[in-house]
Automatic annotation (TrEMBL):
<feature type="binding site">
    <location>
        <position position="147"/>
    </location>
    <ligand>
        <name>substrate</name>
    </ligand>
</feature>
<comment type="subunit">
    <text>Monomer.</text>
</comment>
<keyword id="KW-0460">Magnesium</keyword>
<feature type="binding site">
    <location>
        <position position="81"/>
    </location>
    <ligand>
        <name>substrate</name>
    </ligand>
</feature>
<dbReference type="GO" id="GO:0016301">
    <property type="term" value="F:kinase activity"/>
</dbReference>
<keyword id="KW-0547">Nucleotide-binding</keyword>
<dbReference type="InterPro" id="IPR027417">
    <property type="entry name" value="P-loop_NTPase"/>
</dbReference>
<keyword id="KW-0028">Amino-acid biosynthesis</keyword>
<dbReference type="InterPro" id="IPR031322">
    <property type="entry name" value="Shikimate/glucono_kinase"/>
</dbReference>
<feature type="binding site">
    <location>
        <position position="57"/>
    </location>
    <ligand>
        <name>substrate</name>
    </ligand>
</feature>
<dbReference type="Pfam" id="PF01202">
    <property type="entry name" value="SKI"/>
</dbReference>
<keyword id="KW-0479">Metal-binding</keyword>
<feature type="binding site">
    <location>
        <begin position="11"/>
        <end position="16"/>
    </location>
    <ligand>
        <name>ATP</name>
    </ligand>
</feature>
<keyword id="KW-0963">Cytoplasm</keyword>
<keyword id="KW-0808">Transferase</keyword>
<comment type="function">
    <text>Catalyzes the specific phosphorylation of the 3-hydroxyl group of shikimic acid using ATP as a cosubstrate.</text>
</comment>
<protein>
    <recommendedName>
        <fullName>Shikimate kinase</fullName>
        <ecNumber>2.7.1.71</ecNumber>
    </recommendedName>
</protein>
Length: 181
């Protein structure tokens, strides 16, 4: 199966770009966090509050494996920011599809996230800081430092313009075939 998996930090555009790429390639789009929320009947912050990060990460691994094992045409999947970093999920991603790291500069991520950081469990504490932008930047820098060794194993790292044309050209150059099953 040649699914297209988008990985990267929160706010990198995995869902937004994923939807656009799915439309471009004529594929279904799924968001792993949305799958988890539907299956759990609770929001991501509620899952974190009730089960902690470990409980959420187990749900995430189970949901990823369900997507990867399904039959049907390839799809585009927006993963959660930490998905490739736990429970050997990166191996699952590599075995069942093509991984694309949306690498967005930290200042741009801060700009995108500063208003909505309270809705993301691992960033929520930054919203209450005296300088939320600085706290968010520091949190994202720590998160990237911890996750970069996983993200860097993606088949393609895209840090250029986040347009469908630019990304599809980069995907084609990296050997991604949208018609492979």
């Amino acid at each position: 199966m040649n699914n297209l998996y988008l990985i990267g930090l929160p706010g990198s555009g995995k869902t937004t770009i994923g939807r656009r790429l799915a439309a471009h390639y004529g594929r279904a789009f799924r968001d792993l966090d949305a799958d988890i929320v539907t299956q759990a009947g609770r929001t991501v912050p509620e899952i974190f509050a009730a089960e902690g990060e470990a409980g959420f990460r187990q749900r995430e691994a189970d949901a990823l494996r369900a997507v990867a094992a399904r039959s049907g045409p390839p799809l585009v999947l927006a993963t959660g920011g930490g998905t490739p970093c736990f429970h050997d999920n990166l191996d699952v991603l590599h075995r069942t599809g093509f991984t694309l790291w949306l690498d967005v500069p930290l200042p741009e991520l801060v700009r995108r996230l500063v208003r909505g950081s309270g809705t993301r469990p691992l960033l929520a504490a930054t919203a209450a800081q005296e300088s939320p932008e600085a706290a968010l930047f520091e949190q994202l820098a720590r998160t990237l430092a911890a996750r970069e060794r996983f993200y860097s194993q993606a088949r393609l790292r895209h840090s250029g313009a986040a347009t469908v044309a630019a990304i599809t050209a980069a995907l084609a150059e990296a050997g991604f075939s949208p018609t492979s099953t």
